[in-house]
Amino acid sequence: MWLLLAVVVIVIVFASVLYKRAFTVHELALTGVMAALSLVAYLFFRVPFYGGSSFHLGNTFT
Questions:
Q1: Rounded to an integer, what distance in angstroms lies between the CA atom of residue 53 and that of residue 44?
Q2: 21 backbone dihedrals φ, ψ, rounded to 5°
Q3: Least crowded by CB within 10 Å, which of 4, 40, 41, 45?
Q4: What are all long-range contacts of 8-15, with beta carbons under 8 Å and residues at least 24 apart?
Q5: How confident is the prediction along the chain (62 residues), in pLDDT tens digits per residue?
Q6: Which UniProt keywords are present, listed alphabetically (predicted)?
Q7: What angle do CA 15, 20, 24 make, to 5 degrees?
Q8: Residue 58 has what DSSP assignment?
Q9: Rg of the Cα trace of the chain?
Q10: Are strands 54-56 and 46-48 parallel, antiparallel or unpaired?
């Protein structure tokens, strides 16, 4: 999971450099808040299904 996060951050930084786009502090803070909400929803709010899989609310934020 941490590897996926690192890949996403690298892609975002690469895209911002490629298109010469600067992120504001507000956009970066909002990205961090959404990532934190997704993590909390993934870890704590799960609906287990038969067979061992589960649906979690972390999917709704991403």
A1: 15
A2: -110, 130
A3: 4
A4: none
A5: 567 777 777 787 787 788 877 778 888 788 778 877 777 777 777 777 787 777 766 656 55
A6: Membrane, Transmembrane, Transmembrane helix
A7: 90
A8: H
A9: 15
A10: antiparallel
